[in-house]
Every structure is written in C-alpha cells, then in structure tokens.
User: What shape does this take?
Amino acid sequence: MKKLKLILTASAIVIAVAAAVALRENSQDSTGIQQYYLTGSSYKPTGKFGIDYLCVASRDTCTYTSEAGYFMPRRMGTYTPVR
Assistant: This one.
C-alpha cells in the first residue's frame, strides 16, 4: 500500500511539473514582442495576453506585430478586452 501511495504521489508531481512547463512556454510565446490590435484605421498596443485581452476563436486577425513600419498578423481570432 505504501509503494502504491509513493508511486501515485511521484506521478502527480511529475504531471504537475510537466503541466507548469507546458503552460509557461505557451505564455512566453509573445514575451518581449510588442503586439497591437487594429481599431478603425490605427493600431494600438494590446497589453498582456490572457490578462488584458483574449483572442476569441474566429478567422479574423486578433493581434499584429510591427517590423520596419509594417504590421504583420501574429494571433488569429477576434480581439476581446478583458478589462
């Protein structure tokens, strides 16, 4: 019985660490890259994904990045402010 408890506890720890690493890597997808959303005919800074805004599933472009004055699509979906 003690062996089974030890195996289950060790498995839970491994799964928790793997999930934390997977979520951390996903959240760092845009770290350090300023993103913008299109509002009318201008682009405005977005804030932090999941905190300030979400991209709701759709075929639209949710956010853009800027390189050399050109805006390129970054995330797909509909831009939705959280706050």
Q: What stands out?
A: Confidence is low (pLDDT under 50) at residues 24-28. The CA atoms of residues 55 and 77 lie 5 Å apart. The chain has one helix and four strands. The beta strands are 35-39, 42-45, 53-67, 70-81.
